[in-house]
Amino acid sequence: MTRYTTSFLIALLSTTFLGCQEQSSDSKLEGEASSDPSQPDSISGVSEDSRHTRVEATDNDMQGPITGPGSDTPPSVEPSLLCTTENLQLFSTPTAIRVQLSRGEDQNFFAYQDAPIHPEPFQDPAHLFSAMSGVVEGEWNDERLELWMSHTEDDRTTHFGMRLDRDERTPGKMYTGVAYVNGCSAYEMTCWEPSIEPEFLYDTSTGDCTDDNGEEGTNPWPIHMVRETGDGECTRLVDVALNEDDYGYPDLEEWNLRGAVLDGSAMHFANLVDANLEGTDMAGFGFGYAEITGSTDAHTKLPLEPCDVGYSGDLHCWN
User: Fold this and answer.
1) Rounded Cα distance, 190 and 186, in Å
2) Which carries the bigger pLDDT value, residue 132 or residue 80?
């Protein structure tokens, strides 16, 4: 059981589509909200110095318009925000809700999927449990997201809402809060701009994480955001399960964990494959029925479980 997750009551698992009780078609989030069509600000790039140049996420990217069943978002509308929830812990399969929000000229669009948290999102429609898309309503500005969306299929209407506030810990656009399904379940959720960049990067010469001004710090990415982007450089993933309680032996491939702190975290019945582990603090990291492979440097702190480090710094741990 992960300890990072905010505890929420999951109620009324009595119908399909995440098992939440159906509501009337005019149901929305409580309170009035008005639309704000302001465009997101651009994100300035991070200058290169002795610090590590950011590793681009690979197959875990949520880039590009969503495709798949129920997706009728115009292909020309690129996502403005990417969103995902924590592991919903529903049924027998670890599941996440993923939403893409897109700004159009006259309307704003959403595309929604709930599917297993592994493998990669928006890749294989056969893995989808459900999907919907259309016009999103509510408040969307620099400081807050209070949005709702609905979809009717086979005389069944599904309502999804989200309330998130701007996370001021990062200069890029990131929102944190909760998502609701049919008003009776709440889940931790994070949204971010596709162009978001980490403020702090790993410095290979010192083993520290620093910003452009040389100040030390960490990036506030939660584990479910790292799951989607593959980028956990200079994050504090403390007291979390890297595989989010997915015990189906998922391969967490090519994660960038340079300079990350994994104190009190764990991974069981899963594998961390070809990870970037330069400067990663794994001294307090526990794992079992799992393997870890990746690259290291002189600043990497290894876990207590059996590990071999080759001449080139390649790491292999098993337990």
Assistant:
1) 13
2) 80
pLDDT top residue among 29 and 108: 108
Q: Flag whether pLDDT at 247 surpasses 90.
A: yes
pLDDT at residue 299 is higher than 70 = yes
C-alpha closest to that of 198 among 232, 240, 238: 232
Confidence of residue 132 (pLDDT cuts 50, 70, 90): confident
Give Cβ neighbours of residue 122 (< 8 Å, ≥ 6 apart): 62, 64, 66, 67, 68, 98, 113
Domain with CATH 2.40.128 in the chain: 81-192
**Residue 185, burial from CB neighbour count under 10 angstroms (0-12, 13-18, 19+):** buried
pLDDT above 80 (res 108): yes
Give me 132's structure tokens: 């919907």
Alpha carbon distance 112, 151 (integer Å): 10
Compute φ and ψ for 180, nearest 5 degrees. Answer: -125, 140
Q: What is the CATH number of domain 81-192?
A: 2.40.128
155: Cβ contacts below 8 Å, ≥ 6 apart: none
